[in-house]
Amino acid sequence: MRRIIYLGAVVGALFLVISCASTPPQQPKQQTPQPQAAQPEQPAAAAPDAELAQAKSLQQRVDALGLGTYDPEDYAAANKDFQAGQDSYGKDNAASKKSLQAAISEYNAVISKGGALYLARLQEQTEASKKAADDLKASVAVKDDYASANGLYKKALQEKDAGDIENASGDFSQSRDDFDAVTKVAQQKKDAAVQALQSAQQDKSASEQKAADAQKALKDEGFSSSGSGQ
User: Fold this and answer.
1) How many independent structural domains does the chain possess?
2) Can you tell me the distance from the alpha carbon of 103 to that of 28, in angstroms, rounded to the nearest whole number?
3) CB under 8 Å to 180, separation ≥6 — which residues?
4) Which residues span the domain enclosing 97?
């Protein structure tokens, strides 16, 4: 009996050894890579419609007044940035907006610098025309028209001080033309007065000469200028 138990134990031990040898070692589980979460797409920059409209409006204002010639450096830079903003519009709206904002700043610089120089030139021209009218005493000779031109000139000065380029330039130009017209009328009146005076003097001289000739003829004939004979 003991032998049987012993044999059974030996057989069981052999069986355990064989089982362990035949079973391959367990491999660690491979970690399955998790797919990366999709990054949310950045929203596209909105079209800079407001900047485009503002830059275009400023360019038209500068060109209408001819201010580019008074600040050519800023004017050239503004046109370059404005064109770049138009070219990138709808393709790269962020770049377009940046260029348009630069153009807006540069056009405003042209208006600020060029506008002051433009109005100064118009004021100088108007004051030259006013002086010509004053030299001819037009405020007396052409009183009403002179007063109208002078009132418009004073209005232009106020508009200039207020930074109203459009109205100031228009009123300076109109008052300049009005002073020129007043000067022309005053000159015509002066010329007519001078001519009348010269004619009167000539007539007086002619009359005096006629009287002298008649007196001489009477004397030559032996008559007295009083009408009685010798």
Assistant:
1) 1
2) 66
3) 129, 132
4) 49-181
pTM of the model: 0.67
Position 60 in a domain: yes
* Spatial contact of 48 and 89, defined as CB atoms under 8 Å apart: yes
Answer yes or no: is 25 within a domain: no
Using alpha carbons only, give the angle 179, 184, 186 rounded to the nearest 5 degrees: 90
150 part of a folded domain:
yes
The answer to whether the Cα torsion of 136, 141, 143, 146 is positive or negative is negative
Within a 13 Å sphere around the CA of 177, how many CA atoms are in the beta-carbon half? 5
Q: Nearest 5°: phi and psi at 95?
A: -65, -40
In the DSSP assignment, the letter for residue 67 is: G
Q: Name which of 147, 150, 132, 151 is nearest 190 in CA terms.
A: 132
Residues 148, 127: Cα–Cα separation, whole Å: 15
Q: How far is CA 86 from CA 20, 36, 74, 90, 115, in A?
A: 80, 39, 18, 9, 26
Is 175 a member of any domain?
A: yes
- The structure tokens listed for 208 are 């005096």
- Work out the angle at residue 122's Cα, subtended by the Cα atoms of residues 121 and 124, and round it to the nearest 5 degrees: 65
Question: pLDDT tens, position by position, for the chain (230 residues)?
Answer: 555 545 555 445 554 544 555 555 555 556 665 656 556 556 678 999 999 999 999 999 999 999 999 999 999 999 999 999 999 999 999 999 999 999 999 999 999 999 999 999 999 999 999 999 999 999 999 999 999 999 999 999 999 999 999 999 999 999 999 999 999 999 999 888 888 878 787 777 777 777 777 777 666 655 555 555 44
